[in-house]
Structures are given as C-alpha cells and as structure tokens.
Design brief:
The complex is a heterodimer.
Chain A lengths: L2 H10 L32 E2 L4 E3 L5 E3 L8 E7 L9 H16 L2 H6 E7 L7 H7 L11 E5 L4 H11 L3 E3 L10 E3 L3 E4 L4 E6 L6 H13 L8 E3 L2
Parallel strand pairs in A: 4-5, 5-6
Antiparallel strand pairs in A: 1-10, 2-3, 4-9, 7-8, 9-10
Chain B lengths: L5 H15 L27 E7 L10 E6 L9 E7 L6 E6 L5 E6 L5 E5 L8 E6 L2 H4 L3 E4 L3 E3 L2 E9 L8 E6 L4 E6 L21 E4 L4 E4 L5 H4 L3 H5 L2 H4 L5 E6 L4 E7 L4 E6 L7 E6 L4 E7 L5 E8 L8 E6 L5 E6 L4 E6 L7 E7 L7 E3 L5 E5 L16 E7 L4 E8 L7 E8 L6
Antiparallel strand pairs in B: 1-2, 1-29, 2-3, 4-5, 5-6, 6-7, 8-10, 9-10, 10-11, 11-12, 13-14, 14-15, 15-16, 17-18, 18-19, 19-20, 21-22, 22-23, 23-24, 25-26, 26-27, 27-28
The chains are: A alpha+beta, B mainly beta.
C-alpha cells in the first residue's frame, strides 16, 4: 500500500461532514477562537506568483489562483507521513472544505490550494490521486491541487514564500524523505499574505475566524500598522 | 454536543502512513530549553554556541561581534572560539533569536536599534552576514531598543524597551517578516489604553515576550527605557526619580489577536519569561531584577490567570537575578544573579513552592544562562549592559561551561573574552550543522 492509497483508504473512514458547532477545544488548542472581525490581520507580504500545473496537467499562473477570493494555500508533499505536518495541514483544508458545503458565504469567498514541493514525485497524476480527498457530493469551496513542471519552476516560488525544504540525510525516513517547515498561508483577495500558520497555530477555528475577518473587513484597511497606541 | 474534529482524523492519515512505512528509530531531538516553541529543535548535542558580544573601546577592534564557539565533544576545537564577525561599531549588543526555520540569526542592538541578520543555515560554523535593519525607529513608528527576537510562524516578534520620543520605558512589540520587512507595531497597554482587568497596573513598559501556543496566550514583562539602560549604573542608582522609571507589570495577551487580556502588578522589573513545557503545565516563571523575587504566572482551577511571588532569591537587599532557565522536565530552574555572581538552582517540581537546592559561584558577575535540552550542560556569560557591568577586577568577561549532575554544577571549560580581545559576551544561542537534515 503506498501513501496515496493509504490516504484514500483513511479518507473513506472519515465522518461524512462536520458542522461549525462540532469544532471544539482540544488539548493542543485549549482556548476559544476569536470573534471574526474583532481584530486585524496586518499584511505580511505579497503572495508570489510562478508557473504551476494542476492535477490535470494544465498550466496556470499561480497569481491567478491567489487573487479574487480569500485563499488558503498549503505547501505539502504527498509522501509526507509526519502526523503533525502535511497530513495535518491537508486535514485542516479538508475541514474548511467540508464546512463550506453548508456555508454559502464561505463557499463563495474561499479558495483552497494544496501545492506540492516535490515535483519529481508529485506529478499531476499523483496530485489527481491526492485530490480524491476533495471529492464531495455537495457543492463546496474550490480546491486546487498543484505541482510544478520542474524544480527550476518550483524553487523561485518556495524562496518567495519562505518555504524551507531540505532532503533528509536518511532518504528512507519513515516520515518521508524531505525536511520542511509546515507553512499554510492565508491570502486576501488582493494577493497579500495576511497570516502564516505552522503546526502549532494551524487550528481550523483560527483559520475560519481569519477568513471571516478578511471577508468582513474592508481589505483596504488594517493591512499594516500601529495599534493600541 | 457531538464532538467531531476532522483535523484529528487527518492526523490519523499520518499515523496510517507511518504504519505502512518501514519502521526505523526516530532520531533523538535536543535543544536549549528556553527557545520558542515554534523553533525546530537541534537533534542531539549542540555543536556551536553563537555569542552576541558587545565591543569594548580599546579591546580588539572595539566592535560588537558574533562569536562562534565549538562545543562538539571530541572536537580538536572543543571549548574554543572558531569564528567571529564584527558588525562595525558598538550598538549595545544584547539579545538575538532565530527565524522559525532556524536558517537566520537576528542580533539586536539596544542603543542604536539596529538588527543584524545572519545566515546560519548554509555554513553553521561560519555564519554569513546578510543585511542590517537600519531604520527600526522610523518603520515601527517610534519604537526603539529592540530587546530580543522571538520566532513566530513566518515572522519574528521583537519586544522593545523604549521609544524614540522620550526614551522612557513606554514601548511596543514589533513584528517583522522573516525577510526583514516590517509588519506591525503593538504598543504595550497603559492605564489609559488598557480596557482589561488590572488596567490600573499597566505601565506600557516591555522586556520579554513569550507564547504558550496551546493556550493561545502571550506574556510580556517590563524593564526600563533607553535613558536608563544607557546610563552608568552607579550614577543611575543615585537618581531616585530615574529609579522610579522601571517596569512593575506583566501583561497577558490573546496571542492570535495581539490584544491584552489582563495586566498583573509585578513590582521590581520582571525580566525573562519561561513557560513550563509539560502538556498540562499552564504556568510560567519570571524573576524581578530589582525585587529579587521569583514570580509564577499560572492558570488557576477556575481557568483564570493569576500572578504571585513564590520565592525570594538571595538574601536581604537582593542579588539582581537577571536570567532564568527552566529544565525540559519542568523540575529545575537555574537563576543567574548578577549581583553576587552566583547561580541558584531551584527545585520547582511544585511551582507554587520553589526551594533552593544548589548554589554555585560562577564569577564576580554573571548574566545569561543557557541549558541543553537534556539538562546536562549549562553555559553562562558575564555581561549585563555596557554601562552596568562591574568595574575593575570585578569586570570579568567570560563564557563558562558547566555540567549538571542533577545535584551540582561542575565546570567543564571557560573562555576569557577579555584575553581574546573579543569584548563583553551576552546572549548565547545554540547551533548545529544537523538542523533540517
């Protein structure tokens, strides 16, 4: 059984759907999420572009997939088997995808992007298999599964986003052959990165509050600045 | 209420994938115990210590510098300085920190508010200077005295000590992206701006800032402003008005929203913050430099955050406790005391009733203490501030390494920074060539 098959098998075991009221405290996230719109999310930097391929092998400009909607972009590789890394990040995106089925505002304002940093292994067809996670019987937020044609196409994108990736000294490491910092980016409609999550801060309730905050607030205000003076 | 969290199910995917993968042992992970929880830990033994060192006029090139010490056991250079890089000029080198990918080391200067950024990933034994943030006051809308650099996901948090307008202790927390671009300034709350419990204690001062992620809380402490920390200490101590301008508060924040939620009255300049590491240990220690007390900030049984003094450090008159280091198992707290040059080791297995279990004379003066994740190695440096260090023979400038047996500290090596014409060693951070490999 390879990893993609394992993902698909486990996906079949998932509950049919979650509701926002189902999202509650856990030992790792032992607090209540903030009320959307009660805080600001300063702009961190512009979400970089680049040339990418979707799961059907079609070419895209990445910038076209990070503008116009609030985008949650997760850098992953499908061979990652570290429970608190890529599978966890993909799980949070799946949470959001599921939640958008019963939330028209979320569905129409949100875009999800899972982007591989392992182009040699994660070909478009591999990403298509991974994309089975996004198959639903109900309308949901759009979810793109992307890769690149080569490392040469990938590296400028990783550099611009600050996504660190290294090969492990042990390529047979059971958690996967690559070392990486878990990074999930929240990008506003204008293509500005407004939050960066890692494994500690990637709480679906935070992400949901942040998405709703960006939708609620005028995105020309509160993008940077001085507060509480 | 039905409790479903799909993320948990997807975590199971990782577990499932691991189950179908070949089983090999995971490498052990180790790191200093006082770093950000967002920072990847060093695997195994630390290989290098990066020492942010103040330049001294007439000593060597007189400039602040990054000094690299080899601490690999068995190395022919063990316990020796293997590299140094001067930043040019004296900036009151103080604290530093890594970016969350541990690829960059940022070193802050308290007097000039410059931040020097190094690449420590490409060649960890010889960090490569990248650039300097020169316009700190301008881009932050008035904050000065960047005290430390605390890694957050994709960005760093820089707690400051002062402001450019009146150079008092009124200050801010500042955020920069990992690329060195300014993001935001969050001014510490004052009586006038704080709309939370304890607002009457809010003095707007800053020093340390540290996060307990699983509770979504950020805690900050309070020291003093530029016009105090750049004065000669003997002169300052005689100025009763100036001595009133020290912080007397800690602030609890909602970390995600960066909004204060409660202010505590903590008299006597609370400095370093150390959150406990245990999964259910919802508490942090700090020590007050002028009050000479150990304080506990903790969540009580009702879920309310509280702060209280839990121990006196040293005897009558105080010993200027300046740095603290908690062990990874939350059982020990090492407290370095500038006043008498001693390290006091507290048993903090009951955090509400710490007790001294060991004392060790480190030098005539001692400031920072750093500890390995396994708790077996501790390193001390001597310098507090250029204008506050002791004079004459008491002005020893060293890095001293010790082993911890569980009961006592025993010296392993020392480096005389004056003899090597390096300057005054201050903050220490651990490095390794194995990070991210």
């Amino acid at each position: 059984m390879n990893f993609t098959q394992a993902i698909l098998l486990a996906a079949l075991l998932l509950p049919a759907a979650a509701r926002p009221s189902d999202l509650t405290r856990t030992a790792d996230h032992d607090y209540d999420p903030p009320t959307p719109g009660s805080y600001t999310l300063p702009a961190i930097k512009t979400a970089a572009g680049g040339h990418v391929l979707d799961a059907e092998g079609k070419s895209w400009r990445l910038a076209d997939l990070t503008r116009g909607r609030v985008t949650v972009l997760s850098f992953i590789y499908t061979r990652c088997a570290s429970a608190k890394a890529c599978p966890y990040a993909t799980g949070v995106l799946r949470d959001l995808h599921e939640l958008s089925m019963d939330d028209p505002a979320l569905r129409s304002n949100l875009r999800l992007v899972s982007m591989s940093f392992d182009p040699v292994h994660d070909t478009p067809s591999q990403m298509a298999a991974y994309a089975a996670l996004a198959q639903t019987s109900k309308p949901a937020a759009e979810w793109h599964f992307l890769t690149t044609a080569s490392r040469e196409k990938l590296n400028p994108i990783l550099d611009a986003y600050g996504q660190a990736v290294d090969r492990k000294q042990n390529p047979s490491d059971p958690t996967g052959p690559l070392n990486h910092t878990l990074r999930v980016f929240l990008i506003d409609r204008q293509g500005r990165i407004r939050n960066i999550y890692n494994s500690s801060t990637l709480d679906v309730r935070f992400v949901l509050s942040d998405i709703r905050t960006l939708v609620l607030q005028s995105e020309t205000q509160g993008t940077a600045g001085v507060v509480n003076r | 209420m039905k409790m479903i969290n799909i993320s948990k199910n997807l975590q199971l995917l990782g577990a499932l994938a691991i189950a179908v993968a070949p089983l090999t042992p995971n490498p052990s992970r180790a790191d200093e115990t006082c770093s950000s929880p967002y920072l990847p830990r060093i695997e195994g033994q630390e290989a290098f210590i990066y020492v942010w060192t103040l330049g001294v006029e007439g000593v060597g090139d007189g400039s602040d510098k990054l000094v690299v010490v080899d601490v690999k056991p068995g190395s022919s250079n063990y316990g020796k300085v293997i590299y140094s890089h001067s930043v040019g000029g004296r900036h009151e080198a103080h604290h530093g920190g890594f970016t969350d990918d541990r690829r960059q080391l940022w070193l802050a200067g308290l007097e000039t508010s410059k931040i020097f950024i190094y690449d420590v990933h490409s060649a960890p034994a010889r960090p490569r200077y990248l650039k300097t943030i020169e316009n700190f006051e301008k881009v932050t809308s008035g904050a000065i005295g960047p005290h430390g650099v605390y890694p957050l996901p994709g960005r760093v948090l820089v707690p400051c000590l002062s402001n450019g307008k009146d150079k008092s202790g009124r200050t801010a927390l500042v955020e920069f992206s990992n690329e060195g671009d300014y993001i935001a300034t969050h001014w510490l709350p004052t009586k006038d701006t704080a709309k939370v419990a304890g607002a009457e204690f809010a003095d707007g001062y800053g020093y340390d800032a540290r996060v307990l992620p699983r509770k979504n809380v950020l805690l900050t402490t309070a020291f003093t402003g530029w016009k105090n920390y750049t004065r000669e200490f003997g002169e300052l101590a005689k100025d009763s008005d100036a001595m009133k301008e020290f912080g007397n508060s800690m602030v609890l924040w909602n970390f995600h929203t960066r909004q204060p939620t409660k202010v505590f009255q903590v008299p006597g300049a609370p400095l370093e913050i150390r959150w406990a590491w245990g999964e259910k240990h919802n508490y942090a220690f700090t020590a007050t430099a002028l009050g000479s007390k150990l304080w506990l900030c903790h969540e009580d049984e009702a879920g309310e955050w509280q702060a209280k003094p839990v121990a006196t450090i040293g005897g009558e008159g105080g010993v200027l406790p300046v740095d603290i280091s908690i062990s990874a198992d939350d059982q020990r707290l090492f407290v370095s005391c500038f006043g008498d040059g001693k390290c006091r080791v507290f048993d903090v297995s009951n955090p509400h009733q710490p007790r001294v279990m060991h004392e060790k004379q480190i030098g005539r003066q001692v400031n920072m203490v750093s500890q390995s994740w396994d708790g077996k190695r501790l390193y001390f440096t001597s310098s507090l501030l250029a204008h506050w260090d002791k004079k004459g023979e008491d002005n020893e400038q060293f890095l001293r390494a010790y082993s911890w047996s569980g009961k006592e500290l025993k010296p392993t090596f020392q480096i005389d920074f004056t003899e090597l014409k390096l300057g005054r060693p201050h903050h220490m951070l651990f490095g390794s060539s194995k990070i991210g490999k």
